[in-house]
């Protein structure tokens, strides 16, 4: 459930995959855009009220086929970045650091053959740089 994930974490965004089984990356959704889209849906869409549970969120052009008694689907494709910055699991850390510096990234997704393996955050990169220089991660600036 996206709303639970938003309430229980402080992540700035979330990778979106086809399914937990395939883990094939579709894109990346920013936390603030998801919150705003859900809030707007509650205000505008018929059948979604302040206490509705939004179980059916989708990022495709067409809504999934649902039983008649299902919660209303909420289309979130417009908040999805379909081409988030990614690196492969074989990308050297030196290259990753350089990419973060030059592009000012906050996070970068790690993939192998299109499958999501994880996320590298700016904090991860700073920690790595500090370890390499035997410094406190808080003292390193981009």
TrEMBL record:
One of its GO terms (molecular function) is voltage-gated chloride channel activity. Its main location: membrane. PROSITE patterns: CBS. It is a multi-pass membrane protein. It is found in: Endosome membrane. SUPFAM superfamilies: CBS-domain pair. The keyword Ribosomal protein does not apply. It comes from the Eukaryota. InterPro entries: CBS_dom, CBS_dom_sf. The keyword Protease does not apply. Residues 80-138 form the CBS domain. Pfam families: CBS (PF00571). Transmembrane segments: none annotated. Keywords: CBS domain, Endosome, Ion transport, Transport. GO terms for cellular component: early endosome; endosome membrane; Golgi apparatus; plasma membrane; synaptic vesicle. This is Chloride channel 4. The lineage of its organism: Eukaryota, Metazoa, Chordata, Craniata, Vertebrata.
């Amino acid at each position: 459930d996206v709303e639970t994930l938003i309430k229980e974490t402080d992540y700035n965004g979330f990778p979106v995959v086809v399914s937990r089984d395939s883990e094939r990356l579709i894109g990346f959704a920013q936390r603030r855009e998801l919150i705003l889209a859900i809030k707007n849906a509650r205000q505008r869409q018929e059948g979604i009220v302040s206490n509705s549970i939004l179980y059916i969120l989708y990022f495709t052009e067409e809504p999934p086929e649902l039983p008649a008694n299902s919660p209303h689907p909420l289309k979130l494709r417009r908040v999805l970045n379909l081409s988030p910055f990614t690196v492969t699991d074989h990308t050297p850390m030196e290259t990753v650091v350089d990419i973060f510096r030059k592009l000012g990234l906050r996070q970068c997704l790690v993939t192998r053959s299109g499958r999501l393996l994880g996320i590298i955050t700016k904090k991860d990169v700073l920690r790595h740089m500090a370890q390499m220089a035997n410094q406190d991660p808080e003292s390193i600036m981009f």
